[in-house]
Structure formats: C-alpha cells, structure tokens
Design brief:
562 residues; alpha+beta; DNA ligase i, domain 1; OB fold (Dihydrolipoamide Acetyltransferase, E2P); 3 domains; 7-stranded antiparallel sheet; 6-stranded mixed sheet; 22 strands; 21% strand; globular
Length: 562
Amino acid sequence: MKYHNLVDVYDRLEKTTKRLEKIEIISEALKKIKKDELKEIVYLLEGRIFPEWDKRKIGFSNRLMIKALSVASGDNPDEIENLFRKKGDLGLVAEEIVGKRKQSTLYSKEIDSRKVMENIRKLAELEGKGAVDRKIRLITELLSNANGKEAKYIVKTVLENLRIGVSSGIIRDGIAKAFEIETNEIEKAADLSGDYGEVAELAKEKKLKNVSLKVGKPVKCMLAILASNIEECFEALGEKVQIENKIDGFRLQCHFDGTKIKLFTRRMEEVTEQFPDVVDFLKKHIKGENYILDGEAIGYDKKSGRYVPFQTISQRIKRKYNIKEMAEKFPVELNLFDIVYYNGENLMERSLIERRNILENAVKEKKKEVVLTEKIITDDKKRAEDYFRKVLKEGFEGIMAKNLESKYRPGRYVNGWMKMKNILEPLDLVIVKAEYGEGKRTGWLTSYTVACRSGDKFLDVGKVSTGVKEKTEGLTYKEMTRLLKPSIEKQKGKEVEVKPRIIIEVGYEEVQTSPSYSSGFALRFPKVLRLRITEKNLKEINTLEDIKKIYNFQRGKSSGKQ
C-alpha cells in the first residue's frame, strides 16, 4: 500500500469525531488491503509498529526528531525548536517545514507503507556506537521522500502520538464490518490473540476459529467493575460470592511454556527481565507442564514485613539496569488469584470455583515469595462487610467480589468480578503549573499540577487531566486555558508556572508517598470533579496535614499487614 493512501485514511479519521464514520472509513480501507499487508496496516492505524504485547520499543525522542527534521529540510535546529514551542506538536512542525521544501518533488520518490514500517522497526534494534546517527538516517530517509502531510504522520508514528481518535473498539468494529463478521466474534478472537493485526488477517480469510490461547503470548486481563457497597455486589453476583482482599500492587500475568517463564503487565508489556526474583519464585513453587497464571505483585519492607504502596515498587517495572540491586531493595511477593491455562488446557470456560481449585493444587505457598490471595465464600452480607473493614485495617485497598460460576472473560465483564474500595473525600487543591497539549489539544493547557497548602507554601501532590473535556459539554480544556492564561508567570517549553489562583475539586483512588512531588505524596488516578474558584479561597484548600491523615488512614498504620 502506498503511504499516501494510508495518509488519506489518517486525514479522514482525524477530521471526524463520529464513531460510526470512523468505523466506516476503516472498514473501507481494510477491504482494499492485500492479506500480506493487512497486519501491518492495522498496527499503523492503531498508531503502533509492534503488537501491543511486543517488548521492543521505538525509543525515538523529540530531540532526535528535531535533528532528523533539520537534516531532511535543511532548516536550523534552533528554528525548528522555536516552531515546536509555538505549535506544541512535532508532527505539525514536520508538515510545515517539509511541505514548503523547495523542489521536493524533483528528488523524492513515492513511499510505501511497508518501507515506513521497516525503517521505524529498525529503530528498536539499533544499539551501541553510532546507533544514534543510524537512527537519524533511517528517519531522514523517509522524511526526504515525503510530502508535508506524509511527514506529519511519519513523525507522529515514530513519536507514538498519532492521536486520530481510533480506539481498539473502533478497530474491532471496522474489522467486523469489513469482513462481515459478528463483532463479538472479532472481540473474542482478539481476547485470545491480543493482536488485532492477526485477527484482521484471519477475519479476511474467514479463519477466526484458528485463533487459540498461546502460552508466552499475553491475553487481556479480566477486570472488575466498581461497586459502591456490599449490597450492590450481592445483587449483581448472586446469593453466594467469593470475596478476596484487594492488593495495592501491580498485575502480573505469568506464562510458562515448559521451558521459559515470561511475565506481562496488565497492559501486556513484558517485564520478565525486570523481575528475576518472581521468575525464581515460580520455578520453585508452581508445578505443571505449562501454565498461564493471573496475580498481583505487592512490595514489602524487608525490616518490618509490612506491605508498601504500589508507588514504592513501580520504578522496578521500567528498570533496565541494576535489576538485581532493585530486586534486593524493593522485594515483592506474588499473590495469585486465577489460572487461565494449565497442562495444555484453556481454562477460560471453566467456572471460578474450578479454576481456583486447580490453582490451589498447582501452588506450593511460601510467604514473601508466592501465596494465594486470601478469600472467603459467603452468602452473609454482614460477614462480607466485616471482612471489608478488616482488610482496610490491615492496609489493603479493599475487596474483590466474584461470581462463583464466572468464566474468565478478558476486559470488564458484567456479573463477573466487582471491586470495592474505601470511599475517600475529594480534595480541594490549587493549580500551580500546567502544560500545553499536542495534536488536537495544541494551544490548550491540558495537564495541571495541583498543590495543597502547608503554612504559606503550596506543595505539589500530582498532575491531573482526566475529567476535563475536549468538547463543549462540562468543563473543557478551552475553559481551563481561558482561566489559567492570565495567571501565567513563567514558561519553559510546553510547561507554564501559574499564580496559585484556580482551585479545583479532585477525586482520586488513593494517596501514595512519592519523591517526585514537593509534598512527598501523590494522588493515584486523580480526576478533576469541578471548579471551586467561586466557593473556596486559598486558605480553605486542603493542607499537607489533611493529606498525611488520609495516607495514614489508608495504610492502617496502627496495625499494618505483616
């Protein structure tokens, strides 16, 4: 497929916000693509080069892209940098400077989509001496043959910020429409393969039945729906439910194919190298010819034995160096709660009770290495409520409630699993910094650093963007930008410092310790709930002491889980 044809598709997708129109555009495009190109084109439409589960990373920075644009266009890097500050998006910068390049048509040749894929994929493979120069040459080669519009999308793909409003759901529905297959069949196949590119290939040939669960290739994790109370759990899940303690760790999917163990996060990123300790635990404590296990890794303090917040061990996930030292400094315990595949059998269609029994027989528990999540099975709502209060006192996040007959369904599944956490009061915080967005959000302040009060000082407690809208309904980025711009005191790149004036109410799931912010704390999954500028003044916003009290309450400092 010629790249300019794909660019036309990108352009049409970017110009509409209507879901049905996007599905139609993708459907039309997929029908025309040859089978041997289909997988790669689906990846490109998703804004990626590799499948979601592939551990290879492009790793091309804005700084390198500015150098590549300078070589391709002949423009001064400082001028490109200045243009980037104005536009906030290097894709738009590329469109402008490549588009106005003199006599470009005399020296350029048509770019093929496959060539784009090849060059960008090579970026992930280059290492060692001279790698940076070779990476720049690969991108320069593409940009030198591109027109303005093509350059825009090449840059956005390389920097992994395509942002044309194409979700996995739109890709799914586009494949279904293109090849006249039921949407649920496409989704089921994608749940097993974790790869819409592969699914599109098989759908075109009407071979979706060939999709199967493969050990070593991650599947999407089953997720829980949020419940507000115990009554809601029983109403949705049945008269008798399984209740487990909810752990403040990170999800780990553990694969063993008979020879190798692989570990994947909830987002299907491979983290085997980062967790050699977990690999050793699995070798020692899990029996079976092959398996796929679902669990949560939680950190603990070696001296006290107490479990620690997710934030404490999160730095291990992206670690590339000093891995053994990090494992020693931030040890984890693997808590297992489900099994998806065992001894050659796909267990997804088995009930929760059956899967749990198989899991219990496969695991030899050892505290601070591998354990099974604590559970009770009950039809007594009071017992369930008491258990919820007990785990909160022990420092856990809350509970998971599960339907005893539930199958393993990747994604959020109604009447499958529910989660219930401690309900925390929202915080009134003041915005002290903000960042300009990219792409469609260029020109808007879209990310806000919020702070609490400590005496006469304001201390950062995190960044928030969720809860503000692009469109006209509710609180919008446009409105927030209008309110913040008069308060800007300093600007560096895309970030601005603002006079503490705009107060917002922020919801969150948890307060965590963090060295990244001046308060020493961070909000997990913060969300803007509403503006408070007409209701609150700076003396009335939440204080550092308030944050500490919430943190101590959550952690159950008085008892702590040992």
